[in-house]
Specification:
4 helices; Major Prion Protein
Length: 134
Amino acid sequence: MQGMGVYDWRDNGCHRLLTLALEMEKDRMTGFDEREQSFEARFAHDQTLRFRAIAKRNHRLGHWAAERMGLSGEDAENYAKDVVKADFEEVGDQDVLRKVLGDLTGHGVEIEEAEVRTLMDQFLAEVAAELDAS
């Protein structure tokens, strides 16, 4: 049909160039999608590790507080689990801090908020190191 004045773009190599350009764009988008999925997976993994670390920290704090209150055995374990559950009341550490401080003072244990916060930081660092090692 070229002889009749009708232009067929497939005959002069444009088709191949267009095909290559479309393949390159597809590859670029696939790479972008793969990077995005990788970042999302990493974020989800990091959030899971953070959740586990905070739960373990709270459990350790619960055992520490239970010992100060004279609890042992199953009572201490149940109290530690209650401290972990307390973290679901609100965002942040304030709910855990409030519970532990209230329970300790309720049992006649004199302690400052700063001391409990320091222990929370210390226990979180210990748990993070343990999780990194595993």
